[in-house]
Design goal:
By secondary structure, this protein is an alpha+beta fold. It folds into 2 domains: 36 residues, no CATH class; 69 residues. It contains 4 helices and 3 strands; from the N terminus they run E-E-E-H-H-H-H. Strands 2-1-3 form a 3-stranded antiparallel β-sheet, with no helix packed on it. The radius of gyration is 17 Å and the shape is globular. It starts with a strand and ends in an 11-residue tail after the last helix. 16% of the residues are buried.
C-alpha cells in the first residue's frame, strides 16, 4: 500500500499548505509525488478488528477471518470496506473470501489498485 501526499495550493499564500492524502496499491505514477510505503496490519490484529466490529460474530471462525484478512492483504482500508459490506449484507467471512477469490464484481473493488 502506498500513501501519496499531494500539496494543496489553491487559495493558500503561505508555505504551509494542507495535503491531499491518497492510498493506493498502484505504484505507477507519471507525476512525482511524495510516497510513503505502508504495510498491512499484523494477522492477529486484523482478526481482532473483525471480531470486535462484526455484527454477526457467531457465524465466523477465527480461521475464516484470518483467511479473509490474508486475501485483503491485511490492509486497514480494504478491511473496513469489507466489514461494512459484511455488516450490511450479513455475508460471512467464508462467503466473502469465496466472492473475492472468484472475482465477484460486487466486491472485487476491495482488491483493486
Amino acid at each position: 500500500m502506498i500513501l501519496l501526499l499531494f500539496p494543496f495550493f489553491i487559495g493558500y499564500e503561505t508555505d504551509e499548505h494542507p495535503l491531499i492524502i491518497i492510498t493506493t496499491r498502484n505504484t505507477k505514477f507519471e507525476t512525482k509525488v511524495h510516497e510513503i510505503e505502508m504495510t498491512g496490519l499484523k494477522p492477529k490484529t486484523s482478526v481482532e478488528f473483525f471480531q470486535k466490529y462484526l455484527e454477526r460474530k457467531n457465524q465466523n471462525s477465527e480461521k475464516s477471518l484470518d483467511a479473509l484478512c490474508d486475501t485483503l492483504g491485511y490492509f486497514p482500508l480494504a478491511m473496513q470496506q469489507c466489514l461494512s459490506y459484511m455488516n450490511s449484507t450479513g455475508t460471512s467471512a467464508q462467503e466473502m473470501s469465496n466472492m473475492l477469490l472468484a472475482g465477484d464484481p460486487t466486491v472485487s473493488y476491495l482488491l483493486k489498485q
